[in-house]
Amino acid sequence: MPFVSIDRNELRRFAAGVFAATGSAREEAETVANHLVEANLRGHDSHGVGQIPMYVEDRLAGELHPNRHVELIRDDGPFGVFDGGMGYGHVLAREATEWGIARAQAAGVSLIALRRSYHLARLGAYAEMAAATSLVAILFVNVLAGRQKVAPFGGADGRLQTNPIAIAIPGSGDRLPVVLDFATSRVALGKVRVAYNERRPVKPGTLVDQAGMPSIDPAVMFAKPFGSLLPFGEHKGYGLGLMCELLAGALIGGPANDRSALARNGVVNNLFGIIVDPTRFGDLATFQAQVDAIVAHMKASPPANPDEPVLVAGEPEARARALRLTTGVPVDGTSWREIVAAAEKVAAAVDCRVCSTS
């Protein structure tokens, strides 16, 4: 089955209908749908509507609980500790970030800890919330999802998960914020899933098979005997993934990936965030001018490939979004069949009026 191209508003409506059918109130269903479709628009299909089958499966298995809101269990100056009760991370992380923004605006800095959230999806979305209010955000997440899928540097089997990091620096005027958002594995697991569904290999250096040997076959992540993802940048990505585990897991008191985590089902995310008001260090205009100068200096580098100018973090997403607002959201045929099947499991009406093959 070829790709389908779907209008963003139709896709939001469809996704929201699926979540409503699994028990989410209208506002939550729309929040989750909007977050996923926005990830697709920005080119991160790994964190978009392709997650719907997993969400439905975990909801039916009782691992995901709709209509939960954060519980503030410690409010101590700049420190806010929240429990998510395994609700949708798209709602919980937004609420915790909103608290962090307000506290940073008042105190100059905030440190937020969100325990026991279901999948947060695109982490950069929450860092962007802070940047939109002229604040700097640094976010760390650890992931628990049963089988550990990322090998430590030098190891042959999984001991970590894809543990992402996001950092956002506010823009000035019409300039976009600088938003760094990446998994500490070579690629996010969702990108391997997309490759698997599209029946194409992944890049060398992404995976090892069950024997710890290099592989370009995405099937090693989805069929026994399982292989593992590799960390990006060898020991450097491994080190950052480990720090996510120690900060977003051990430090804040959330569950972490030790041997006991293998018995867990579903997806658990824990978030540790630092939000900073740059005006506590100096003048905002001066800071923004310096950021502009640094970005301009980077982009002035002659491109190694004339067809690929130098970009900074956040620009590839902005380009993808501008294109997909016009052309629609592409979804590979296998993923679309899986999404439709998940919707039918919960008796959600499948009425995509503008789906077309391409």
Structure, described:
This protein is α+β, with helices and mostly antiparallel strands and 358 residues long. It folds into three domains: 1-66 and 328-358, Hypothetical Oxidoreductase Yiak, Chain: A, domain 1 (Orthogonal Bundle), CATH 1.10.1530.10; 68-185 and 232-290, Ribosomal Protein S8, Chain: A, domain 1, CATH 3.30.1370; 195-230, no CATH class. It has helices at 8-21, 26-41, 52-60, 89-107, 124-131, 189-197, 235-251, 284-299, 315-327, 333-345, and strands at 4-6, 71-76, 79-83, 109-117, 136-144, 164-169, 178-183, 207-208, 214-215, 228-229, 268-276, 329-331, 356-357. Helix 3 (52-60) packs parallel to helix 10 and helix 4 runs parallel beside helix 5 (124-131). It is globular.
